[in-house]
Amino acid sequence: MQPIKILIINGPNLNLLGVREKNVYGSLTLEEINNKVKNFQYGYEVSIDFFQSNNEGEIITTIGESMYKYSGIIINPAAYSHYSIAILDAIRSVNIPTVEVHLSNIYKREEYRRKSVTAEGCIGVITGFGYFGYIMSVNAIINYIIEGSSF
């Protein structure tokens, strides 16, 4: 079996992790989270690339360019998850299994954070488990690829 290639996309303000609202997002930086995700032992050969942008257009372009390069996408669209139809359309367009992840439990937060329009294009959403949600998302993608779409 060839390595499973996964792209992890992080949206706006996630480059400020470790500094911003530690009571909500924890004290780990994005680089520390990426290292934990990359160094986790998944039981399969997994190649993971990371991308972060504060710009919606760059995220959309990156999703579009992922076609034929990646087996799966994990995305934390951050604030864009609540209103970006453009990111939703990009996710749907590439037809790559995508998992949405959030560090905090969006359902325990403000009302406007409880709806994710981008989740409609994803095979699932993992929310509220901090950095470990990314590891859970990688495992979900692996299971989806190996077992097929029979969740």
Describe this structure as you would to a colleague.
By secondary structure, the protein is of the alpha/beta class. It has a single domain, classed as Dehydroquinase, class II (Rossmann fold), CATH 3.40.50. It has five helices and five strands. Strands 2-1-3-4-5 form a five-stranded parallel β-sheet, sandwiched between helices. Helix 3 (56-65) packs parallel to helix 4 (85-94). It starts with a strand and ends with a helix.
Query: Order of strands across the widest beta sheet?
Result: 2-1-3-4-5
Structural class: alpha/beta
CATH superfamily: Dehydroquinase, class II
Radius of gyration: 14 Å
Helicity, as a percent range: 25-40%
- Distance separating the two termini: 21 Å
Helix/strand order: EHHEHEHEEH
| CATH level 3 topology | Rossmann fold
- The CATH class is identified as Alpha Beta
Report the sheet with the most strands, covering strand number, pairing sense and barrel closure: 5 strands, parallel
Outline: globular
- How many structural units, i.e. domains? 1
CATH architecture call: 3-Layer(aba) Sandwich
Overall pLDDT: 93
Total number of helices: 5
Poorly predicted ranges? none
Beta-strand residue fraction: 15-25%
The number of E-state strands comes to 5
Active site: 25, 102
Subunit structure: Homododecamer.
Pfam families: DHquinase_II
InterPro entries: DHquinase_II (IPR001874), DHquinase_II_CS (IPR018509), DHquinase_II_sf (IPR036441)
